[in-house]
Automatic annotation (TrEMBL):
Species, as recorded: Acetivibrio ethanolgignens
NCBIfam families the record matches: Cof-subfamily, HAD-SF-IIB
Xref: Pfam families: Hydrolase_3
Domain of life: Bacteria
CDD domains, A to Z: HAD_Pase (cd07516)
InterPro entries assigned: Cof, HAD-like_sf, HAD-SF_hydro_IIB, HAD_sf
Protein's name according to its UniProt entry: Haloacid dehalogenase
């Protein structure tokens, strides 16, 4: 198969545990782009927290793309044009706030280049470290967040968050897209949003078939794109349900798993391997 697009999750996939990209992986991605392969960074992160990574990989120079907020935004790196956007409504973010307070969880959203948090907590501090964005804790969250937002994240310790996810699923139903990205992040987007839908939107714009797409990820919010891609790849450090649906399992994020996929399936024209 002649693959024309590589879609990459960031945390625990492209990025090593220290948040950097290995030289081997960077070199392979730059080489792939110079050979006409489109590189797309698809993450739950805000645009702000992806732009430096896109610049390091030379996406602006080579016509790459950013899919941010789990698919709620598509950005053309060459022009900085927003090709797609979808929000959750003000009523929905206020509803999620009320539900979070009842469940004893925290909630955060984004306004401009700031994280807006219901109260100070260790999990929003982690998001600040990941994204480099400053945190605002308003005295009245609902009054401060007075318009539509790109997404919301409910935060709690992993065991409790899984309970909340199961508890809320019948209530949320299909009104919003709900997914766990990190074990302590339960994310909510517009119901027309997930990574696979935005990859499909972008592929159609570029005239690329989904069968010509490689998608690589590790967590629950990567499930849809790994199932939809022509070659869905799970990292060795991926959660079990992602490994189960993947066509191929590569090495982990500390041992150049992404580079090894490019070497095997882009430059050596390897055949797709089905993992039982």
């Amino acid at each position: 198969m002649n693959y024309k697009m590589i879609v990459l999750d960031l945390d625990d996939t492209l990025l090593k545990n220290d948040g950097t990209i290995s030289k081997r992986t960077k070199d392979k991605l730059v080489k792939a782009q110079k050979n006409g392969v489109k590189v797309v960074l698809a993450s739950g992160r805000p645009n702000y927290a992806i732009e430096k990574i896109a610049a390091e990989l030379e996406l602006q120079k080579n016509g790459g793309y950013i899919i941010s907020y789990n698919g709620a935004r598509i950005i053309d790196c060459a022009t900085n044009e927003e090709l797609y956007s979808a929000n959750i409504t003000n009523e929905q973010i206020h509803e999620l706030y009320d539900m979070s307070m009842q469940a004893g969880a925290y909630i955060q959203t984004y306004m401009g280049d700031y994280i807006i948090a219901s109260e100070s907590n260790e999990y929003t501090d982690i998001e600040k470290k990941i994204t480099g964005m400053d945190i605002i804790v308003p005295s009245d969250f609902k009054e401060y967040v007075s318009g539509d937002v790109v997404k919301a994240i409910v935060l709690q310790k992993p065991e409790r968050l899984k309970e909340i996810e199961e508890w809320w699923r019948p209530e949320i139903n299909d009104r919003m897209y709900m997914t766990i990205s990190k074990p302590f992040f339960l994310e909510f987007m517009n119901n027309e949003v997930d990574k696979s839908k935005s990859i499909n939107r972008l592929s159609e714009l570029l005239g690329i078939s989904m069968s010509e797409v490689i998608a690589i990820g590790d967590s629950y919010n990567d499930l849809s794109m790994i199932k939809a891609a022509g070659l869905g790849v799970a990292m060795a450090n991926a959660v079990d349900c992602v490994k189960k649906v993947a066509n191929y399992i590569t090495d982990d994020n500390e041992h150049d798993g992404v580079a090894k996929v490019i070497e095997k399936f882009v430059f050596q024209n390897g055949q797709k391997t089905v993992i039982a």
